[in-house]
Amino acid sequence: MSKRFVAIWFSFLQADWMIYHNPLLKEIPFVLASSDHGRMKITQVSALAKRKGIYVGMAVADARIILPCIEVLDDKPELANKLLKKISLWCIRYTPIISIDSFDGLLLDISGCAHLWGNEKNYLKDIISKLRSFGYHIRAAIADTIGAAWAISRYGKIQAIIKSGEQASAITNLPPEALRLSMYTLERLHKLGLYTIGSFMNMPRSVLRRRFGQQLLLRLDEALGHEEENFQSVIPIEAYYESLPSLEPIKTRPGIEIALQRLLEILCNRLQHEAKGLHSATFKGYRIDNEIERIDIVTNHPSNNVHHLFNLFEIKIGTIEPALGIELFTLEASRVEDIITLQQTFWAANSSLESKEIAELLDCLQSKFGNNILRRYLPDEHHLPERSVKPATSLTEKPSIPWPTNKLRPIRLLKEPKHIEVTAPIPDYPPMNFRYEGKLYKVKKADACERIEAEWWLSNELHRDYYVVEDEEGKRYWLFRSGHYNDQEKPAWFIHGFFA
Known about the structure:
By secondary structure, this protein is an alpha+beta fold. The chain contains 13 helices and 20 strands.
């Protein structure tokens, strides 16, 4: 399939935008101007001002002589680029590959896109009619090369769609300016009487290079398709991206769900063939009022399961506001990884974190309640209980050491031990009772002491003597005494955890 490009030229970009936001300017000839070496020069003209003989580059003083009633507004140099970026985002409904062309145009790589509108004629007609409905004066053309499409959009007289392979005949009668040449080269061509591309297109290349330099040959080759032209898209192209335009604007939830289902089927089918799964994806809806609706999902393990991914998106579909209707849906997977097939046992359920069912359950919980709803901890190489665990960076991170299973530990461990008041019969004995948060607990049973000390190279904290105690209600607690009893002061007691 040969490449096809659309070149769009906005002949009065900034002026048209100002008229759209201030309709009163439509009946007034006006220009945009900026200071140039001490005098005001015109940088942009409105369509009405141009018909009155005003042109870009003219001094404002000269323009006032020709048209005393002309309105002069300050130029905003950054406005053109902002407008083109915004329009390029709108044009994603036609193709995801869009480039800004200087300060007054856009270039679209439409290879494989036009068939969605039936043919290139309907495709180009739809682009032109919708942009003109926003108030822009535009010209557009389709060709095999960027150079030919650019030339026809700005200098072509009749045909806007150049058939594949016919770019040479299409640009023959156009002026040399259509090749995007420098002013110096154009002046030399005009001095020699070469007023059309055809007048020098078939000259020996050595002659053209010697007289006009390499730029002329490069531009000519780019227009004819002998040299591929660099194309840098405004929107980074995701490797896993699908789009679905709608013939009629979609306003209902069932319509949105059908579009999402189709996109997921296409994308997941591709992922399955490549043994890959997505970790994060974005579903976007482009409304006819130029607003974009989007929802995002994240999975803990790479997935290409259509049903599971649809369920994750379905939770958030209610946040999409179709307003007057959505005319384009896109789905892009921003993070994709290889899927490693795990061997499952036949005699026991797979309950590890690698289990597909558990991973999908965690995805649903996170999608419904937020990414911060789940926590996972791994063992850490420290003696003190509050330092012996650390947060995992992901659900797939492997522990550096095994979980200790040879010692009894509470099901709930306080983040920091809390001070308690105790009554002990004699030193180095477990307490008879303790007071925690204003409530008195009487100890009925207590296990033997377990001494835990901090690493000497990390801190000089006192050792801890831990006791598992049980109160009269059968509830068990994890208490510890910090240090020894001595003649000067009694050691402090703390509660550190709760057993089931």
